Amino acid sequence: MKKHAGQDKLAWWREAKFGLFIHWGLYALAAGNWKGQEVQSVGEWIMKRAAIPVREYELLAGQFNPVKFNAKEWVDLAVAAGMKYIVITAKHHDGFAMFRSACSGYNIVDATPYRRDPMAELAEACGRGGIKLCFYYSHFQDWHHPDAFGNDWDYPDAAGKDFDRYIREKALPQMRELLTQYGPIGLIWYDTPGEITEEQSRQFASVIRELQPDCLINSRVGHGFYDYISTGDNAVPARVFEADWEIPATLNHTWGFKENDHNWKDAGELIRLLVNINGKGGNYLLNVGPRADGTIPEPSVRLLQEVGRWVKTNGEAIYGTIAGPEFPYELAWGDVTHKPGKLFLHIFNWRAAFVLFGLCNRVTRAYLLADSNTHVTVVQHPTNASQAMHRMQVYLPQVQPDPIATVVVLEYEGELAVDRLQA
Ligand code: GLC
Predict the structure, then answer these.
(1) Fewer CB within 10 Å, N or C, the chain?
(2) What domains, with CATH codes, occur in the chain?
């Protein structure tokens, strides 16, 4: 089976650069606490960390009634943030399906008073909002099914488990439901492949290739049957990474809602992360953890709206950018993103002037992205004996237009070339 996507299948994803991750499930009811005690773990792992018996945990389903869920509001927030796709947990490690599933009664339509299918509503809202709908599916861990991996407190006899029966009875039938009930799906985001075998990974890739050939697969499917790489959680590559990759990341310290996790990043850090990740060639998949009532925590909303205001002005320096370049010296003033013919200098630390080392190309025009009538003066010096590389002095306007990041556009001639440090 072909392991990696053709270039065209990835085109929308390479253009997108920025997506919304949504972790939403029964764990939002627990909100990080169990029997009056806060459980030290990410919110969506509470069943495992507190070793909650299936018979107790599944009682949450009877209380799950997200009457304030509004798919259009969620899609509008993603659009306002400048995000181009949504990856939502269709089934997380706890085994509960947040979608209509004929093959397991442990799902939001059949097992909760809500009785609606939020994935169907989200699919419709994404279609209207021009956002790609994508699903997260935990294919290896399922703490509800006796044959799946992960629940060793209700099902301690690992040798007695028949993982292929879990795949046959639940996981693959649910993948078929996700790939046939909700229209075109942008990508499937598998998670924690653990000790899954190559043949089992192949099955989880094959069902996608069979039903939705244009649907992308992330690397956590296992055994290389992927179209792009998911890095570690909140793990930004240290250098430019010339591959198709995406980083899953949180706004605080949890994926699923926890009422006591107030460790919010600020908009400046998020924007600098977006630029740094895009500059290294990656997509930024930034997470929200909605409450059990279907609302998204206000700090998450505010942060995404603030990031969106910046992206709205500076989106040309984000969407469709490609990896690199890697300049020879640290950029004390900020960071860089790139499209052929244009370098975007993201100035985080404003100053009167700075020197950019290493750009060999002739700059034909330099201006502020937010106001192309504001010219930026650059003076280029060819390589010489003392410096052994090209230098360019950049003189910035007196007033810093954007307190978080102001983008200077350098239009250049020819194929991009950057000096390297020579030993
Ligand atoms: C880890 C966690 C999982 C979360 C994922 C997001 O795999 O186990 O709960 O969904 O990271 O990247």
Answers:
(1) C
(2) 8-317 (3.20.20.80), 334-412 (2.60.40)
